[in-house]
């Protein structure tokens, strides 16, 4: 089976969907791999390393000729996939809700698109889950970005020149990114507190040595979906949460927000007035800035200053750690491909009744087939 690995074209994208390690493993399964020249450059991987792993290198039109599987980090424009085999698979992060028109275009082009961020949250699929692997790095990097913008130290320091207090870090939204942000801030010596809408997270926050700050009511008991994600909360809950945040946030030096609700804009957690209540020199990192933002005034791709507080809105934070993020992403893709590899057929077999296939498949035989897109 012929695979093509694309060089990413988006401005803020430095990752690559295959590494020499996964190229070697895919070839071990029986695949042949063509990598677009320069695909790994921004993730510190030279073309020669792909060649040494057994891949061929070429320009985009050459590598796509007859390709049956196209691997990418972000979904390529359907029109750019000229020359691929009929019914070719595109395996990538496809942002299906926001890029719905592109999903339709994949169907129209007869390409079978698999959205890796739709991977079901089941034990069998854990090693294939790009959202987890990338969020983990984003949570870590968010704290380092905060530390870089902050004009003070994180740990308490007792020196001959006097003592400086530890920084106070508040993490809002404690999924994969939030947990890693808590762990990273703790390692740097900060005093950490955190909040979420899902009560199950409380114990995890405390096990990392941070303080859990929660609005407790009947609604939070049902705040988690069967898939492990948060639901959108009621206005009454939001009002209680805002009151809790207002009294807590003014005492914080650093806030990291990560709150997301699948298929919906990110919930607004911090208002401009709450930003104004913080001490000058404080820093807020909004990891949800590209999904609409948790913080009023956050600007995608920029660090802005409001009321003396820096609001950090970097785009595509995992890509800021491109080498590690690529290594994780590529392994997630490999684990998925290997699980559905048929040794006899020397190719992929994707049964329609498999929970993972049903979860990630967006298009088939010219139609959009994913129930998360077709429902309602
Ligand atoms: P996410 O990126 O969708 O959201 C980040 C966090 O924001 C979540 O914890 C969510 O509850 C929280 N949030 C949403 N609205 C909020 C609000 N209004 N106020 C405060 N917080 C809010 O979440 P995620 O990182 O993808 O993780 C969700 C859960 O799924 C976690 O418990 C994680 O451990 C679990 N998970 C399971 C698997 C698996 O079993 N295979 C894989 C990955 C993650």
Automatic annotation (TrEMBL):
Keywords: NAD, NADP, Nucleotide-binding, Oxidoreductase, Translocase. Residues 147-313 form the Alanine dehydrogenase/pyridine nucleotide transhydrogenase NAD(H)-binding domain. It is an enzyme of class 7 (translocase). Residues 4-138 form the Alanine dehydrogenase/pyridine nucleotide transhydrogenase N-terminal domain. It holds the Pfam family AlaDh_PNT_C. Belongs to the AlaDH/PNT family. This is proton-translocating NAD(P)(+) transhydrogenase. The lineage of its organism: Bacteria, Pseudomonadati, Pseudomonadota, Alphaproteobacteria, Sphingomonadales.
């Amino acid at each position: 089976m012929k695979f093509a690995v694309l060089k990413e074209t988006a401005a803020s994208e430095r990752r690559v969907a295959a590494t020499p390690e996964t190229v070697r493993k895919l070839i071990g399964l029986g695949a042949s791999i063509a990598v677009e020249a320069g695909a790994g450059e921004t993730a510190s991987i030279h073309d020669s390393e792909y060649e040494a792993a057994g891949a061929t290198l070429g320009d985009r039109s050459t590598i796509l000729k007859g390709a049956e599987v196209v691997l990418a980090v972000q979904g390529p424009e359907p029109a750019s996939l000229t020359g691929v085999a009929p019914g070719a698979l595109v395996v990538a992060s496809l942002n299906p809700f926001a890029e719905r028109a592109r999903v339709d275009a994949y169907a129209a082009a007869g390409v079978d698109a698999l959205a890796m961020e739709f991977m079901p949250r089941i034990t069998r699929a854990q090693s294939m889950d790009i959202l987890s692997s990338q969020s983990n790095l984003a949570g870590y990097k968010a704290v380092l970005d905060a530390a870089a913008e902050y004009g003070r130290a994180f740990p308490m320091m007792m020196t001959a020149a006097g003592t400086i207090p530890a920084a106070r870090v508040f993490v809002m939204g404690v999924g994969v990114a939030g947990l890693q942000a808590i762990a990273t801030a703790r390692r740097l010596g900060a005093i950490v507190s955190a909040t979420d809408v899902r009560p199950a997270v409380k114990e995890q926050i405390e096990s990392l040595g941070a303080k859990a700050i929660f609005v407790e009511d009947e609604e939070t008991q049902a705040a988690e979906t069967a898939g492990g994600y948060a639901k959108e909360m009621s206005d009454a809950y939001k009002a209680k949460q805002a009151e809790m945040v207002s009294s807590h946030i003014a005492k914080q030096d650093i806030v990291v927000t990560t709150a997301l609700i699948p298929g919906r804009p990110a919930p607004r957690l911090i208002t401009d007035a709450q930003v104004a209540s913080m001490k000058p020199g404080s820093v807020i990192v909004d990891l949800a800035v590209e999904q609409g933002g948790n913080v009023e005034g956050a600007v995608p791709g920029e660090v802005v200053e409001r009321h003396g507080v820096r609001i950090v809105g970097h785009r595509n934070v995992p890509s800021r750690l491109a080498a590690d993020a690529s290594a994780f992403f590529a392994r997630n893709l490999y684990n998925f491909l290997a699980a559905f590899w048929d040794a006899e057929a020397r190719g992929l077999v994707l049964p329609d009744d498999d929970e993972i296939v049903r979860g990630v498949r967006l298009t088939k035989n010219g139609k959009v087939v994913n129930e998360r897109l077709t429902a309602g």
